[in-house]
Amino acid sequence: MSHRLCLCLIAGLTGLLSVTPVSAAAFIWEGSVDRNWGNTASWSGGTGVPDDNTDTVTINNDFIDAGRRNPLLADSSGNDASFTVKSIFANPNSIGNRSYTFGNVASGVGVLIMDTDVVAGNTTITANTGGTSDANNNTLTFNVGIQLNDNLILTTSPFSTSSLTLTKATFNRAMGELGGARSVTKSGSQRAVFNAANSYSGGTIVTAGELVVGVAGTLGSGDVTVNGGLLIINNTANIINDLADVTIAGGAQISLVSGINDIVGTLTLGGLEQSQAGTYGSASSGADHQSGFFAGTGVLTIIPEPAAAALLLAGIAMMLPRRRR
């Protein structure tokens, strides 16, 4: 084989194996009349429609037709579809006091897939952090499933009328995905609400504001950490994993509605792991151990370690009166 032929073959193989890098695209929702995500007329700022782990989506238009603010997860023909994005921003340009809702087509089960091209990176959903006053706030609602391929950070506005609600979202890992479980972090000074049976497994972290778990909502199966702000649990179905490590930092709180008595693996309050078994709650909860780390009248319960439980039972047995023969 001639050197020239070898060089041609190598050049050809190199061309076949080379991968053109995907450029990140910043899409802006323009709201086509049919509201379908898969309709290119719905978007500006990028080529086609957002469906890649480098794509960011901004929804900030002040449409006269309010319905056009609400994207549907559908292809250009209106068929049920799922789409992948890295970040979603609602109203960061302070257009003015609007509500945005992500929905499915009739009987649709399409999901938003949150994924990032950055190794060990985070995906984000941001509700109105760019507003300048309460008058410029919005509400952002997801009535669709959300699949986490990477960790998700939920951020809410510093203004009192801003909110972020997830009413149908099921957070979970992609089937067959390799690597660690994915977590959800709540940041920003306002409220985010979970109203669905979520299944993410990487843990829940609250750093600021309020994360509210509604009466039908759940947390994932991982640990629960409240480094700042307030975690409000209104579901009495014991939604914290029995093996979870629950941590509440100084100045933070967990509020437990009446009727909650949820077993946890470990409980750390203000940096100190609680070693005493029993119930923990607020001063109005009637718990065995009461503190300002809690609000509401529900309680968390720590059960003794097996060895400690055995010693406790042995001690109780020795205290019982013995029957004389």
Spell out the key features of this protein.
single chain; 325 residues; mainly beta; elongated
Write a structural description.
- By secondary structure, the protein is mostly beta strands.
- It has 2 helices and 29 strands.
- 9% of the residues lie in helices and 35% in strands.
- A 12-stranded mixed beta sheet has the order 3-1-4-7-10-13-15-17-19-21-24-25, with no helix packed on it.
- The longest helix is centred in the first third of the chain and has 15 residues, at 3-17.
- 44% of the residues are buried.
- Mean pLDDT is 80; it is low at 7-11, 13-22, 129-135 and 172-180.
Which percent range fits the helix content?
under 10%
Got a strand count? Answer: 29
Total of DSSP H or I helical runs spanning 4+ residues: 2
Kindly report the spatial arrangement of strands forming the biggest sheet.
3-1-4-7-10-13-15-17-19-21-24-25
Low-confidence stretches: 7-11, 13-22, 129-135, 172-180
The average pLDDT score comes to 80
Radius of gyration of CA atoms, rounded to a whole number: 25 Å
Measured by DSSP, the beta-strand proportion falls in 35-45%
- Pairing-aware structural class of the strands and helices? mainly beta
Compute the separation of the termini in Å: 104 Å
Principal-axes shape call:
elongated
Largest sheet: 12 strands, mixed
